[in-house]
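Chapter review: from sequence to fold.
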Amino acid sequence: MDSCDVLIVGGGPAGSSCAWGLRHSGLNVLILDKQVFPRDKVCGGWITPAVLTDLGIDTLEYSRDRVLQPITSFRVGCIGGSIVESDFGEAVSYGIRRREFDDYLLRRSGAKLQLGTALTRLEQSPSGWVANDRIQARVVVGAGGHFCPVARLVGAKKGAEPAVVAQETEFEMDALQLAGCRIRKDTPELYFCRDMKGYGWCFRKGDVLNIGLGRADPHRLSAHVGVFLDFLKLAGRISFDVPPQRGHAYLLEGTSTRTIVGDGILLIGDAAGLAYSQSGEGIRPAVESGLLAAKSILASDASYDAKRLDSYPALLARRRRPWSMGAGRYIPSQWIGFLGRSLLKSRWFVRDVVLDEWFLHAGSSRDLLSLPPNSSFQRADSGAHFK
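The token string follows.
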């Protein structure tokens, strides 16, 4: 039987970040994933500089052989309404391709890898857990996304939570499509639904285009997507049909009832339901939660019962942003659409609230992941290069 100290189920940014955070700990870490990497992943593929900083990624080195599209401005509005353009004059975020980004993080994580193998069975044992009847682990980290099998083990039930649903596609444009695309490489476009229950996006990364729409209300999602795609054509943003879209789901922070800590169990990333409530962004919460889970594992002094791992929920609570609980829940639903459409005409609101607060998190603290200098877990801030 194989054995490890930490079994991480899921090789995406959450799982890779957790393993990377444990790389100098002396612990034996194994990542299990049902996919073989590199693999395609449905995702807008947008990261803030904080992600690069927290993971010590050198942008110059990373961008040599991979897509790292600087984002310097945005077009924001309502579907069918007026548009506000905000130019920051410098790179405030970056576009990545998840196929490249996830594979990069996984390969440099320092963990042993078992890819192409799904978790089908998980049972408690006197010394922790046994996965698939052949892997003995002292602690298991669930990093398998919204449908993570570890999350199901600790009580998550499919369809029992108010998930955001989305459809999107990402494809490399041919010559005709490039000629018929007015979306600029450095300028993502965000278009909110008129009822403010979701938004669509167009995001160009070099010659690759990502288009999608997500909604907190799952009813008639395909119809909303159709309206959005028609709007893009009528507005002259694209002149061609896009390839078929793929669906996915995730939970917004504050809406999940999942148990994220148990005896020898931790949930991170989308498995824990941590996507930002206003933007739906999942990569930064995945990275942060993975690093914080690593911190909690190290602080437990090799005793991985729920009581010793309970620092993890407290650390997650500290990283919660002012907007994370959603101010809209206090406004009558019949007013939200009108107020939202009115506010999205304001350059101040778009720049300072929608972009700086909701999507860029420009005012968030950067000390949430710090530890004393003598800790075996260290943040690597010096590797990133920003203007």
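Two observations follow directly from the output. The longest helix spans residues 283-299. The longest strand covers residues 164-172.
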